[in-house]
């Protein structure tokens, strides 16, 4: 991943952003001073983007692009090494009968399964991501969150998905959340950090915007909507706000940061709506797995079926792909 790089030499972080993190009062002033979100406007724009018609070659390209952006995930208490190996095999060859099918971006597992995933994916180019920091609730001490992160990184994880302390954020303890993200980022070493906002618990679009900027200021390589364990999870309006945040961040710093909607995206039609939003809100350069991901394992099955339809000219039932 190259999420924090730019196509040209990145300028120094602008003074207003540096000043914003100087102390608690400065950070609060910056976050509360962000423009409010026009709820009607953002929902109308998101709905409008979802009506775009994508056909023929463009649809085939969109399907392949979406496949390459999937983080194939298993995060269950009953996960076994065998299940992780099977998921890894699917990640590398999503449709074994169609060798030109793109591999997915990453396999995401709990920290204790990272070593198994790393071994199974060695040399494939598919990244290993690990949730950490007391996922999904995050209700544990910073020491345990950092230890959780270290376990994942030491086992070879390329990416770490952390959850923010939503309670602290909703209480307005922004500096506490900022410092926790910074600490986890430092513990990641060379691994990239995805910061999960759990937008379904943030209550307002204004809070989503503030949490997005807070995560970017603290060094998150990606901002991610949700754990997939809380409803609502990813939505187009929320993703729109997060895409706007990374677009504006790039405009001010020259740095490219990514966005990952997770949970509730199940169909090819849904995925294409999100790709249109990426293009229209953030920009074409975000249409890469380095800067946009789908946290939606069930989505892959529909993408594979629709890909077969595009290639073969007729619909193939679920018997033709591995349905998770």
UniProtKB/TrEMBL annotation:
The keyword Zinc does not apply. Pfam families: DeoC. InterPro entries: Aldolase_TIM, DeoC, DeoC/FbaB/LacD_aldolase. It catalyses: 2-deoxy-D-ribose 5-phosphate = D-glyceraldehyde 3-phosphate + acetaldehyde. Pathway: Carbohydrate degradation; 2-deoxy-D-ribose 1-phosphate degradation; D-glyceraldehyde 3-phosphate and acetaldehyde from 2-deoxy-alpha-D-ribose 1-phosphate: step 2/2. It comes from the Bacteria. Its EC number is 4.1.2.4. Belongs to the DeoC/FbaB aldolase family. DeoC type 2 subfamily. CDD domains: DeoC (cd00959). PANTHER family: DEOXYRIBOSE-PHOSPHATE ALDOLASE. One of its GO terms (molecular function) is deoxyribose-phosphate aldolase activity. GO terms for cellular component: cytoplasm. SUPFAM superfamilies: Aldolase (SSF51569). This is Deoxyribose-phosphate aldolase. Keywords: Lyase, Schiff base. GO terms for biological process: carbohydrate catabolic process; deoxyribonucleotide catabolic process.
């Amino acid at each position: 991943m190259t999420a924090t790089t730019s196509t040209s030499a990145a300028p120094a972080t602008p003074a207003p952003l540096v000043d914003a993190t100087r102390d608690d009062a400065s950070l609060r002033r910056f976050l509360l001073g962000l423009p409010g979100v026009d709820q009607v406007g953002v929902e109308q724009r998101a709905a409008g983007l979802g009506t775009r018609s994508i056909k023929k070659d463009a649809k085939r390209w969109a399907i392949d692009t979406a496949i390459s952006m999937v983080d194939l995930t298993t995060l269950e208490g009953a996960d076994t090494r065998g299940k992780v190996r099977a998921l890894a095999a699917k990640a590398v060859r999503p449709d074994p009968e169609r060798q030109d099918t793109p591999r997915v971006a990453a396999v995401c597992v709990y920290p204790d399964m990272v070593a198994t995933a790393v071994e199974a994916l060695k040399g494939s180019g598919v990244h290993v991501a690990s949730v950490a920091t007391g996922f999904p609730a995050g209700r544990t001490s910073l020491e345990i969150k950092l230890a959780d992160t270290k376990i994942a990184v030491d086992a070879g994880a390329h990416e770490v998905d952390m959850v923010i302390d939503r309670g602290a954020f909703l209480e307005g303890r922004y500096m506490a959340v900022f410092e926790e993200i910074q600490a986890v980022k430092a513990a990641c070493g060379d691994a990239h950090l995805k910061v999960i906002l759990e937008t379904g618990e943030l209550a307002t679009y204004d809070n989503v915007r503030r949490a997005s900027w807070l995560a970017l200021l603290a060094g998150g390589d990606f901002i991610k909507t949700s754990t997939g364990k809380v409803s609502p999870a990813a939505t187009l309006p929320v993703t729109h706000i997060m895409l706007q945040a990374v677009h504006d961040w790039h405009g001010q710093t020259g740095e490219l940061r990514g966005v990952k909607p997770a949970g509730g995206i199940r169909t090819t039609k849904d995925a294409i709506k999100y790709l249109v939003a990426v293009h229209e809100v953030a920009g074409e350069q975000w249409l890469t797995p380095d800067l946009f991901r789908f946290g939606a394992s069930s989505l892959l099955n529909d993408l594979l079926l629709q890909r077969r339809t595009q290639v073969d000219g007729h619909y193939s039932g679920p018997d033709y792909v591995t349905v998770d």
